Amino acid sequence: MTIRSVDAGQAGRARARMVDRLRGQGIRDERVLAAMQVVPRHQFVEEGLAYSAYDDTPLPIGFQQTISQPFIVARMIELLRIGRELGKTLEVGAGCGYQAAVLAQLASEVYAVERIRPLLDRARANLRPLRLPNVRLKLADGSLGLSEAAPFDSIIVAAAAIGLPQALKEQLAPGGRLIVPVGSSEQRLLLVERQGNIFRESWHEAVRFVPLLAGTE
Ligand code: SAH
User: Fold this and answer.
1) C-alpha angle 184/189/193, rounded to 5°?
2) b/e string for 151-172 if b means 16 or more Cβ within 10 A?
């Protein structure tokens, strides 16, 4: 079965069912739900997995990495957005580019960094047909942030850190928010909000992410 054999109508209906399920799971932010309704997730996974693309499950994207389950993508973005817009956003761990495409619907600018070059190339190829003018992809170790484009209103980390990466905290704009899975065998989402030079932290869902690694390859 090829991606092309998933026709647009079928994919749209599968996405509508995914969005209904996300609502049932407690996602309340209608803009997040609308963004997930428009991004063709099946075009970001390997051809043989296109039919599973809208299930609530993580999927392999090669190089021992996974695309997060739709609920976690929605939940992380929802937490960043409560009471505000995303603004200029950094995504650490672009993977196949899916989450960058969702963020592009909601953020003024998206800088998505990835440490594995062939994955970055794949993200670029996956995003090209969507013609999203506000997304920039870059090969970089995102645990150091992206100083050339800092500060950011929002930072979303798609890999699990052992502790809160200091560089990311420092690259938050005043009023900015950062969400990062923290932990090794047990991980939780940590939301950090900067108010002046005070950083307020709150813990959310238990999650399972691949590790945030140093360097590029
Ligand atoms: N958000 C992605 C899925 C991310 S999987 C998507 O929508 O497809 C986590 C990704 O983080 C992997 O691709 C992994 O290579 C990347 N990663 C891990 N540590 C990183 C780091 N320090 N800098 C940049 N990317 C990193």
Assistant:
1) 130
2) bbbbbbbbbbbeeebeebbebb
In angstroms, rounded to a whole number, what is the distance separating the alpha carbons of residues 83 and 89? 16
155 lines ligand 1 (CB under 6 A): no
Catalytic position from the list 5, 52, 68, 184: 68
Q: What is the pLDDT of residues 3-62, one digit of tens each?
A: 445 678 889 999 999 999 999 999 999 999 999 999 999 999 988 898 899 999 999 999
Encode pLDDT of 74-130 as tens digits.
Answer: 999 999 999 999 999 999 999 999 999 999 999 999 999 999 999 999 999 999 999
- Cβ 1 vs Cβ 50: under 8 Å: yes
Token pair, residue 75, equals 């939940």
Encoded tokens for 1 = 């079965």
In angstroms, rounded to a whole number, what is the distance separating the alpha carbons of residues 211 and 21? 28
Rounded to 10 degrees, what is the CA torsion of 208, 121, 92, 67?
-20
Stated pTM of the model: 0.96
| Per-residue confidence (pLDDT) for residue 6, from 0 to 100 | 64
Pocket test for ligand 1, best of 80, 105, 116, 139 (most atoms within 8 A of CB): 116
Q: Cα torsion for 177, 180, 182, 186, to the nearest 10°?
A: 120
